[in-house]
Amino acid sequence: MKFNDSLITKDVIATALMKSSFYDIALARRGSIASVKKIAKRTIEVAIKLPDNFDFIAGQYIWLQIPQLKYLDQRGNTRMFSIASSPSKKRQLDIVFRTSESGYKKTLIESVAGTEIIFSGPFGPLKLPEDSLRPVILVAGGIGVAPFLSMIRFSAEIFSRHNITLIWANPSNEEAIYVDELASIEKASANFNLVKVFGRLKNSHLKQIMESTINSNAVWYIVGPQSFVDSTTQFLHGSGVLPENIIFEEFYSQTPSELAFKKNIYAAPLLFAPMNPFFTVVKNASNHIIITDANGMILYANKGAENMTGYTFAEMKGSTPRLWGGLMPRDFYVKLWKTIKQDRQIFSGEIKNRRKNQEQYHAFVRISPIIDNNDTLVGFVATEEDITHLKEKEGGLKNIGMAFQNLLEDLRIEKSKVEVEKAKDEALLASIGDGIIATDKEGNIIIMNHAAVELLHESEANFLGKRIYEIVKMYNSKSTLVPTSERPIIIALSSGKSTTTATTTTHEIIYFYEKKNGIKFPVAITVTPIMLNKNIIGAIEVFRDITKEINIDKAKTEFVSLASHQLRTPSTAVKWNAEMLFDKKTGNLTKKQEKYLQEVYHGNERMIKLIDNLLSVSRLELGKIVPKEEIIDLKRLLEGVVAEQRPVILQKKFRFEIDQPKENVETVTDQLLVRMIFQNFISNAIKYTLEKGTITCALKKTNKKIIFLVKDNGVGIPEAAQKRIFEKLFRADNAMDINKEGNGLGMYMVKQITQTLGGEVWFESEEGKGTTFYLKIPLKGKV
């Protein structure tokens, strides 16, 4: 055949050679009839649709079972067929056979497309030699060409180097199949030679091929009827061809002694007579017993064999044990045949076979050669003992042992993975600049990174195993130790929620950690609980030194304070001059001039208010505001603030209610600071409540506290914005949509002032329904 030396072709050849040494068997596969057609006189081709995962080697065969026979057949519903198609023809294989009166074949011929079939395989010893330089001579009698067709087709497709000659004998040209296809392959390839013989194959045909074959190491493959195989083999042996260079498929060559033995078996009525003690023992034995000729052709099978395999003797007769076997690796059968045929020794061992219903079973097999008086091997006696139940028990023990081995291996692998992950985690922790401390659910430190050790100025050994809240001291901005219950890591461990502390001075509380040398440094802390199956098993604390951020914030605050002072003077001058113009001390103004002056005046007022707020914020942050302790009446203070807002309240037609005691509500505190809180609460309610809305102010006095609240049914605060309401310069999106002139300083100042007064501030809100702000201050003020 022509050989293409391309890389692609080499890959295909390598794959083919690899497959040729692979022995893959599948049981009870389901397929269906794709088509049935007559391709020559007395010859039928059946195409079978296959599952996706079916592969075979060129030259192999399958066992084909028809679930329901339409016509009775003594040999049953299963037959062996050589595969005629190439392995490259995916999801379909072709078989060919001669017609006969067999009930099986008649049923198959009348099958329609889609008819379900069951097949097992692939099986078979036929394959091209691995040495592509050895000549290959295929001798086929009639339909015996089927496996050779598969080999020839595949060789042509992969451009095999094998030099192949096909000697094909047919009764007539009308019964020859695929002649045109084979002629085309011969024409296209220099490595394939077709010799057609019509009528009986003569020795002269074989002699002519032998003379043209230079290499005496040629491999001869013979497939056909028994008489065809016998006569061909006899001539080859007589011509000096070694037995090991002759390969058979179904029928093997038989010697005269073997033929005589077979004849004696069939013609021994006394041996198999019902009254013969030998027959009675063999027939009734529970073990499987068969007698075969020297090539494994079954001559006799007892009831035990029928029971074990599921096949009747009529179905077995004329077949080989491959009918229920063929499941072991190829090397097993090579050793078996060498032992019983070449060495003439008894073979015994465990084997796996397949019953007619496709069920697998394990057996202990013993095969003994039968030697006649002329020292000629004429047949075999084989027995099988079903040991499936023992193998199942043994398999269970093996499975337990394998399970333990797998478990140990899994543990080793997992240990290795854990060690790798640990190394990665340690490298990752070491590379992070923030301090990281991991604790168990009791707060005991189990891991800390290098940055944490550096920040706290302490060795890791002095931390591990100790409770974080005992060894790492935490202070608030007043240099007071933070109670254990209020520490972020304890809150996270008890609540199962992440906790974050201040990161800059825009937050209300700054926490400090103390180093080993007693120096305190401000920290921003984030604590996240570790959850396992919804249970808290520990926590991770990440902290960092925010000294630089605080210094930057302080510098910004000082700058804002200075700038605000500088801006206050020109703003005051603008206001004074505008008022002079309004008083007409410089003459009368036109209406257009008055309009422009009004805009200048109001814009300047907004500027003054912003400057005042910035000054107040900077003083609060720098700690320059010291509350002035004086006795004030909060009831009168509230009424005064409401009176200032009365024009806007009337303009927007609010329903404005004040709930306060009849008696005075007096306390000692800073009137100016409390007034700023009242103003912010009420002005915000007015800004963010639509016309005709409701606003309620309430002032209540308890034993030691005074509570002031402002409730509205305005736009409310979105949930996502609520945690940032007290941040500097923050405004919610819906607030900016309603009032674009706000600056985001009001609530920040309220928070700072409340802390200065020693009080608390909080709120409740639902977007679209309204907001309630609360203030709680000591009854006697800050001492």
Automatic annotation (TrEMBL):
Residues 281-331, 421-472 form the PAS domain. Residues 26-129 form the FAD-binding FR-type domain. Its EC number is 2.7.13.3. One of its GO terms (biological process) is osmosensory signaling via phosphorelay pathway. Gene3D superfamilies: 1.10.287.130, Histidine kinase-like ATPase, C-terminal domain, Nucleotide-binding domain of ferredoxin-NADP reductase (FNR) module, PAS domain, Translation factors. InterPro entries: BphY/WalK/GraS-like, FAD-bd_FR_type, FNR_nucleotide-bd, HATPase_C_sf, HATPase_dom, His_kinase_dom, HisK_dim/P_dom, HisK_dim/P_sf. This is histidine kinase. It comes from Candidatus Staskawiczbacteria bacterium RIFCSPLOWO2_01_FULL_38_12b.
